[in-house]
Task: structure prediction
Amino acid sequence: MTAELEPANEAAAAGAHVTTAAERRHRPLPKLADPAAPLLEVEDLKTHFRLESGTVRAVDGVSFRLDAGEALGIAGESGCGKTTTALSLIRLLPANARIVAGSVKLYGIDLVPKNDNALRRYRWREISIVFQGAMNALNPVHRLHDQIAEPLMERLSVSEKEARKRAGDLLELVGIPRKRGSAYPHELSGGMRQRAMIAMALACDPAIVIGDEPTTALDVMVQAQILELLEDLRHKLGLSLILITHDLSVIAETCDRVLIMYAGRVAEEGPVHEVFRRPRHPYTQKLLSAFPNIHADRRTLDVIPGMPPDLRHPPPGCRFAPRCAFAMAVCTEVVPPETRFDDVRVACHLYGPESDGTPVTVAPADAIGPSQALVGAPLDVPPIEVLEG
Amino acid sequence: MGSAYLVRRLASAAITILLIVLINFLLFRAMPGSPERIILRGVPNVTLERLEATRERWGLNEPLFPDQFVSFLQATASGDLGFSFVARGQTVGEVLAQRIWPTLILFGLGELVAIVVGLALGAYSGWRRGGPIDFVGNGVSLILYSAPYFLLGMILLLIFATNLGWFPTFGMLTAGATYSSPVDRLVDFLSHLALPLATVALGLIGQYAIVMRSSIIETSSDDYVTTARGMGLKDSRVLRHHALPNAMLPTVTLVAINLGYVVAGAITVEVVFNWPGLGTLTVEALTARDYPVLQGVFLLLSVSVVLANLAADMVYGVLDPRVRT
Amino acid sequence: MTVSELPIVRRTGSGRAMRLGGLVRQLLRRPDGFAGLCILVFFGVIALVPDLLVGPLQTPVTGLENGYPRLAPPSFQFPLGTDELRRDMLNLTVHGARVSMVIGLLATVITVVIGVIVGVVSGFIGGRTDGVLMRITDFFLVIPTFVLAIILTSIIRDMIGSASREILGIRMTLIVIIIVIGITSWASTARIIRSQTLSLKERAFVDRARVIGAGGGHIMNRHILPNVVNLIVANAVLVFAGAVLTETTLSFIGLGDPLQPSWGQILESSREIGAPSLGAWWYFVPPGACIVLVVFAFTLLGSALDEMLNPRRRARQ
Result:
């Protein structure tokens, strides 16, 4: 992790003018929108999966906010609920998943109570998604420009000719020659497909683009190109970005803010430079140290002992407590409240009312350490995927 | 379509047909009695010259392989399948020609109805998995799939012909009837066709619905379907434009592969309704041990199925851009 | 593919039995598995002890001697009515269970043995052997094997003559049917087993066995077969459903044995006298319903097992 974690967005770094959602748009806000409201505000979101063996609390009380033009990274081990959180925004969930509580407010409009047909209007026009591994996310039997043009024709009633033309423009925007639009997905390289997927996501000029591990399946060189493209487009088009990844370096390079999730809850959230420079939550500290530290020329990886908890029966207090070296008696019983230090939120008992927000890096005297008895049953996921990234 | 793909498929079909002829040849030689007697059993007044000519024609004076097989292959290729034991003096080709049309009409129409209805039912069931239509549709499909076709036919016959009297019980036209116009004749034909056609269609619908249902279920968890939903497309469009074209791919192959199996069912339906096609011919030939005709039916049906599979491969090539290149 | 190679499959018997206990428990927890097993047990019992349930198989003579009515509809005395030879249909249907299921079972054994041998050998040896074997397999997969079965059955019967011999209490005519079904329906089993063998071959333990110096036969016996047992069980259940249907159809077009009537043979007799046109539904509906139930149960079981055991489908859930 580099020491110079400069905020990627220069405008944001200048700290000057933050564009409002209304200023950026070329078309009117949706009906009922509140121009003064933040672009996206998620509060206490809970999404549960119903399985035969019980209810999986995949997302269990997540709150965050995304302002116009901002890039938010969501990080955590796989299975921690980051993808489910993002898909819950436009309710793109499997049949056995339900949003059981909370609100998702886009321009102040709560999307959670809307029925499927009403919600459909917000998909792609306001929030679009770039999926992981575009080979599977692109339809193998349709040509690229048809896939890009489809939402334009179906959602915005653009004529076929116009939609084709715009599809070509979009392809050029993401660095694919216009004439390649007649190709089928299998005829393109992985990087090209990911670019096409991005072009598709931009088709309806959405306010928010969600990138769900957009670079995971690609090799390092192509990864860098795709990230650069996203970065470039964000500034050019004034997009807001939600980037889901287990690769913290991707977030460090592209995002303004970062949200660290653990077992369906927010562990820590704040500006990237602040969180990465002074991680407060023991989980964030562990995650960061799990990466090779280039500056200290350290090649060893810190491994977080234990496994994420079984989300059908999460531990009663802090969900990280069973694996936390700093865990105290209270951690196993009481759910830690979120505490604010300037712009950073952290949910950890180490930062109680008397804390001034200085990161705790030494185990407190009353720490009980990781209790093996409390380590949850293994989930069906590789435990610490950050190591593979 | 890539020419390599085309050539590969054509070669494969050719080899299969060659194997079919080989089997026919081996069966022919396995039959009790000398080959020339078998060939000429259906011919009245065989002279010694005729016998010798036949031995010559079929290469029976030569060794079994390759000469006799080559002769057999040549004869088969030129449409010479020998003489029927039963229909004296008639060649197998002539016998088959009389019986092929009724089967083609019955089976072709039944297949058409079943593909449309079965695939639609299966697609809808799979898309609304766990819903009421799925529950009923899948149950009915499984039962239809488990029932022998002829049993369905017997039950339809009992209900709609015997009890309700809506349709005639057997044949293709009313025996001894005279028609005042071609329209009358057509009406009579259609009323005879209705029940066998319904039977063939019902039997196939179960199978096609099951295949399509599982294919749609597999497809609907694919990422591009999620993408299409994410685009805010209407549910029906996601199904028709994204899930279906992909779910069709394995279905086309499976439907084609199952054709050979399905043919067996169709044969028995004809027997129930006395439909004068290849099915009743098969049973007649079986009863009379008319082997040349049986072999002719086998050859005809096998080659048809192979050609249908070839056609399915071509359709697959059109549907799936990935095999085109 | 001869008798001498049979022990290969038998050797996995104990492993299969152990796994089966767990499988049955798992099956009972699923509605489709439960329903399938119930129907299976019901007909299994009937097939095992038909004489205890309805007495010995009736013949035209019994009907005449007892003065039963001809083609009588169901009544208190004859719950399923009688046929044109004055036989009790309940008696015939119950005895038909044994004939149909024994033929189905034996044909399944032959089918699975051939299919497994072809599949394992093809997948394991690979190369040209694999090419040739799969060519033949595809051939049997595509052609209308039913028509071939018709010809084979009648030719074989002509060759062995009108033998009234019996093997294990099964008449020669039916033995021929069993063998013919077996040698015409193994192709899909071979396909499935081959692809499983291919993926097993790649796994580490096979490599380890090869490094130790085990021969091909040893690896097949010890490492590959035990691991395809699950798949064989699931497939055998589906094959059985198909075999019962094929036997029924062959009997229906006149290749059954009236002296050992299976359900298909009963249906053939009923068609012969035109039962549907006479409205004599009791003649063909009960045996027909039995066939549908048995095939339905085995299809349910087979697909339930497939879902439970097939690694690819399991991963999807």
